[in-house]
Amino acid sequence: MTLLTKKTDVIQQLQKEVLSLQGYKRTSGSERLNTGLGPLEMSFPGKVFPVGAVHELISATVEDAAATNGFIAGILGSLMRQKGACLWIGSKRTIFPPALKIFGIDPERIIFVDLYRQKDVLWAIEEALKCASLSAVIGELSELTFTESRRLQLAVEQSRVTGFIHRYNPRNKNTVACITRWEIKPLASIMEEGMPGVGFPRWHVQLLKVRNGKPGSWQLEWSAGGFRHITRTIISIPEIETRKAG
Q1: Is 82 left (phi over 0), alpha (psi -120 to 50) or beta?
Q2: Which among 37, 129, 188, 199 would be 20 to 30 A from 122, CA to CA?
Q3: Is the Cβ–Cβ distance between 50 and 153 less than 8 Å?
Q4: Which CATH superfamily is domain 34-42+52-183 in?
Q5: pTM
Q6: What is the pLDDT of residues 94-105, one digit of tens each?
C-alpha cells in the first residue's frame, strides 16, 4: 500500500467520523433509501438522502405549502415502504389525506395529530421523533429556535427516525440545527394532449442549505409513481398569475 493510499484512507475515515458527529449516520447498502431523487442526491454527503435526520422546509404562501407537502409525500412513500407508520403533527392541517394515494401512501397508515398551541406541537414532535418504531415524523409549525431544533436532531440521532419540519410563513429564517433547508415552489403542470383534467404535480426544488453538501435547485415532476427530473424551463404558478394580472 502506497503512502498516498494510506493518506486517502485516513482522510476518508476522518470524514466519516466528522459526519457522524454532525448527525449523519453511516448506512449500509441494505439500509440505503431509494428516494428516486436521482441527480439531486449528489448534493448530499455520501450521495444518499440523509435518513435518521431532521430536514427543514420553509413555505411563504399557501401554494408553496401545498407543493411542499406533495414533495414531502413523495419522499415519505419511500420511507414508509421500509417500516412502520408515520405521525403528521400540526395545529392547522394543510394536507388532504386522500391525496396521499397519488404518492403510493395509504392515508390510514398516517396518524394525524392536531393540536392548538405551538408549544404542544413542538413537544409532540420531539416525543414522536424518539419513537424508533416510526418511519417518519412530519411537524407543521411556524417558529423554531436553534435550541429547539437541536433537541429534535438529538432525538433522531438515537431513534434513527427521519423528521420533516415544515415551517409555514415564519417571521424570520433563523439558523437551525437541521441537516438541510429546502424551499419548494409549485410549477404549472402540463396535460397530455387530448386528456382532460390536470397534469402531474411539478415542483421547483431549492436545497438552500445542506451540511457538508452542495446546495442547488432542480425541477421535478411526480409521474409513474416516482420523481422525474425536468430539463426544460417551466414557469411557476405564481408567475403565471402575475402575467395574467399584467
Answers
A1: alpha
A2: 37
A3: no
A4: P-loop containing nucleotide triphosphate hydrolases (3.40.50.300)
A5: 0.81
A6: 788 888 999 989
